[in-house]
């Protein structure tokens, strides 16, 4: 037993020195998370603010000025005045504005007489998501102003339905609180899968695998000795990412830290197993890196729910997402950070990752043997 520990420690030390001598490993583990978090935390936002909105008022008066003022005061719009609807339409076609609010010359007279006073709304539909957001913000601003206008006139606004909404978990609707926890899963996927995909392939390419095979090391000892330093590297990157999320981006952590660490360690083991399996099968660093990108990183980025809602995807794509480990970890992260320890969510997704780990471990063991062929 003592000899096994000495062999294992020697392998861990060898792989740790290899990591320290390889600047790319340190960069992927610690520099890349900082860059990605800064990019997504500050540079990428799913929130729509300062939308350039063209406003055309054919007959200015008190009512139209009041309505236009509501759009001026809104943080969601950056209004621009146009004298005629043709000018505004030209600006919309040239992508200088994203929408048009058109108040015709009979707007105030029909409003004051109690009849319907329609407003014209044009929205750029090239980006369907942005178009829906813009349309919803215009409608919300218009309804809020209409209620205020009715109250100023001393009459009740006859609305068949009045919505009383409550927003759970992210009351400010900040996309940063949604993106940053999910990004931790993407970072850990890159550290675990990409780096580990090189470990065995590198030995084959450099011709050092033959030297390792003639040592008393068992295959299991060699693989565990290679994985432990990368596990520590990945968890270090995770801790750095969590620290930035908490103290730089003010993302709340509403769950015990030990639970976050436990789930992160489980996901890191799954990512390491994927990378190790790729490395054993390919035996080529370049090919291993390409396969890791296609099999691990891209599905994690696109099919995990990090950016795109899984329920909005076609049914056959939703089925594929069940094969993506990051899908389960993203759900756990967003729950632990924003909602707290919701155990049904945590246990179901952690159980799925544990099942994946068992299957991947079996595949790695079957593919690992001390033979040159």
From the N-terminal CA to the C-terminal CA, the straight-line distance is: 30 Å
**Oligomeric state, counting identical vs distinct chains:** single chain
Number of domains: 2
Query: Overall mean pLDDT score?
Result: 83
Low-confidence stretches: none
Shape descriptor reads: elongated
Overall SS class: mainly alpha
User: Can you count the beta strands?
Assistant: 4
Number of helices, counting only DSSP H or I runs of 4 residues or more: 15
Rg (C-alpha, Å): 28 Å
**What sequence of helices (H) and strands (E) makes up the elements?**
HHEHEHEHEHHHHHHHHHH
Lateral strand order in the biggest sheet: 2-1-3-4
| Major sheet summary line | 4 strands, mixed
- Strand fraction: 5-15%
**Percent helix range:** 55-70%
Brief write-up:
The protein has 373 residues and is mainly alpha-helical. It has helices spanning 2-20, 23-43, 62-73, 85-93, 107-112, 128-152, 175-196, 199-206, 209-213, 219-247, 257-282, 285-303, 315-321, 325-339, 343-367, and strands spanning 51-57, 77-82, 99-103, 120-123.
